[in-house]
Amino acid sequence: MRDRRIVRLGLVVILAASAAVALDRASGPAGEPSTSTRAGTAHGAGAGERGHTPYPRAGAGAFTTADGDSPVLGADGPLRRYRVAVEQGTGQDAAAFAAAVDGVLGDRRSWIASEELRMQRVAEADAADFTVYLATPDTSERMCAEGGLSTEGYTSCRLPGQVIINLARWLEAVPDYGAPLEIYRAYVVNHEVGHELGEGHQACPGPGEPAPVMQQQTYGLEGCAANAWPYVDGSRHEGDPVPGI
After folding, report:
1. Which of 23, 208, 223, 244 lies 20 to 30 angstroms, CA to CA, from 81?
2. Cα distances (angstroms) measured from residue 79 to each of 90, 112, 124, 223
3. What is the pTM of this model?
4. d(Cα 223, Cα 148) in Å, to the nearest integer?
5. Total domain count for the chain?
6. Which domain holds residue 146?
7. Tell me, what CATH number does 204's domain have?
């Protein structure tokens, strides 16, 4: 009887060890997910941020508008009024985002440097020419798609009367941008507002030169240096037009 118990105990130990080996092989090396969860679209090319992120991918779809009006920004020219709104559930403060947008659009290197344009933030929708939205990746993708634009939840976009800033880009910029987050934030605001002002995409003018603000810097610099501003050293900085986009 004792011999049978020993044999049975030995079989249990062997079966348990075999199961542990099989589980270890299925899980991969320690600290790594399985192959099926590691695959994804590369950053810079689309929606490769479906895993854990420090921000919500989706929000309420409703927005909180920043209160109050800013001073008029710029010295001369027609006045363009804008609102600022932040998607609820993002953890972002509407007043803080509005202050950042005001700081970019009121900078002497921004669009007002032409002295042919003034800007002002307003709180009332009826008074605004366009709205700058800060939206989660899923919400921004849906909003942009309503205008026929595919962002894959990765890029920001502009539709008539709507400048839509992707929350992920606002918080993380893009890999290999080569400049601080604040520079990317100024770039994305100036770029999308530039579209609202009628500007099209432009190409890098040459290796090492500042990238035009209307270059699609989110997708790469093409040899240029990161640049957030339409005016560099007091002059408008541009590249050749990129047709068709």
Report:
1. 244
2. 31, 10, 15, 36
3. 0.79
4. 30
5. 1
6. 63-236
7. 3.40.390
